[in-house]
Amino acid sequence: MFAAATLAGPMTDATLLSDPAPRFDPARRRAVTFALVLVTSLSSFESTVVTTAMPTIIGDLHGLPLYSWVFSVYLLGSTITMPVYGRLADVHGRRRMMLLAIALFAGSSLLCALARTMPQLIAARGLQGLGAGGLIPLALTVSGDLYSMEERARIQGLFSSIWGVSSLVGPLAGAFLTVTAGWRSIFLLNLPLGLLAAWIVATRMIESPGAARAAAGAPGLVALLRRRATAWPYVSAILMGIALYGVSTFVPLYVQGARGGSASSAGAVVTPLILFWAVSATVGGRLILRIGFRQSAVVGAGLLVLGFAGLLAAAALDASTAWISAACAVIGCGLGPTALSQLLAVQEDAPAEQRGVATSLVPFFRTVGGSLGVAAMGAVLAAGLSARLGPALESASRALSGEIPAPPGFRIALERSLLPVFAALLAAAVLAAFAAARFPAGRHRSR
Question: Which of 201, 200, 174 is closest to 189 using CA atoms?
Fold first, then answer.
């Protein structure tokens, strides 16, 4: 039985099927929603909190050549397990999988805090990623069970805002905790919060015994990917991932490398993206209720096109960093309605017994699209730099870290090599608008 039905007390499968909008126990629903907020905050916070602590961690544990593995192994573990958790939640129930994900995440956080070498930390981060892969997909799935579509549009907009704010606070909190309590505290913080979330899920989210459903397996997954109502939101999720990861990867590089800005100023330039995403996610929920999935997705994709056009123009015309920040703000405004339209369109169309895997595929495709897109654009950047700098390319890499002065012509070479990257991001936004125009229209009215 799904959490949505059992929050009101024991029910049968027949009751759930005959009553698509059962009455919920308000106290139970509030408690479980708070637990979902906790796990969403933990997942988004953990994805960024480590960044500012890494120099200190490297100094303590050494292993500079293994630096990138601390991030990549976490991302890999969380990505590959997203659809797995969704599938298992459909078969074995939401509560059981949520408890497993929280236990794995919190337990491996303790292992991270106890690590004495870089290989130990990397192994623990891999396990932590395996737990993190279930947190947000399952939180989105359970919220889909708890709330009607009208309520869901608002509550998942709130979750998106929480995700954005937690991601933004992560680096600042990481720096503060590292200085005041040591870098191990950034992992230990997950334990009490994880235990609280697990206790709420275990005691308030009750699932009837023997009520697990057998989802349709591989044929059902193929059907999800082939249905227009779900296929186009998944395509949009891939393109959104390219846009999001591309901005966070290459805009700071442009500001710091081509414009000569500091690391802090490079990070500050993309901050408006997160802030305006958090705001637009809340507004996007109301927009979807008024005009439906398709038109909301088109509005969001249109803002993405406008923002990336401004970003490309800023790079081509050597505009001020304020212009770049404004472009990032417009992109953030587009991400809110785009992301919500993807998720809600998929949840509305997918059968109840496939809602878990259908929901988990949205963040999965975003992450896969972003990872592959950044890799492809990184290859384009590397080819451009190699052609322009030749043998000086290696010294240019050291110049970015501040070890040596930049070689002659480095900034111009980097700026020109990034222009095709920004053009590719604009092309991805245009394709996202094409995909958005093929979303299901939606049938929901404003309240």
Answer: 174
Other beta carbons within 10 angstroms of residue 12's beta carbon come to 12
143 neighbors 95 (Cβ within 8 angstroms):
no
Q: Give the whole-angstrom CA distance, residue 207 versus residue 205.
A: 7
Please state, in angstroms and as integers, the Cα–Cα distance from residue 163 to each residue in 47, 156, 298, 321, following that order.
10, 10, 23, 26
Say whether 215-447 and 1-212 share the same fold: yes
Question: pLDDT value at position 148?
Answer: 83
How much is the pLDDT for 129?
93
d(CA 4, CA 16): 9
User: What is d(CA 376, CA 361) in angstroms, rounded to the nearest whole number?
Assistant: 22
CA distance 320 to 360: 39
Task: Give 223-231 contacts, CB < 8 A, sequence gap 24+.
Answer: 224/350, 224/354, 224/357, 224/358, 224/361, 227/349, 228/438, 228/440, 229/345, 229/346, 229/348, 229/349, 229/439, 229/440, 230/345, 230/346, 230/349, 230/350, 230/358
Q: Of 9, 27, 81, 46, which is closest to residue 200 (Cα–Cα)? A: 27
Kindly report the pTM of this predicted structure.
0.80
Task: Determine the Cα–Cα distance for residues 77 and 108; give it in Å rounded to an integer.
Answer: 12
Where in the chain are the domains? 1-212, 215-447
Please give the class, per CATH, of domain 215-447: mainly alpha
- pLDDT value of position 8: 35
**Collapsed DSSP state (helix, strand, coil) of residue 215:** coil
Q: Are 343 and 359 in contact (CB under 8 A)?
A: yes
d(CA 87, CA 257): 43
C-alpha closest to that of 341 among 220, 90, 160, 165 = 160
Residues of the chain predicted below pLDDT 70: 1-24, 64, 207-214, 216-221, 262-264, 392-408, 443-447
Topology, domain 1-212: Growth Hormone; Chain: A; (1.20.1250)
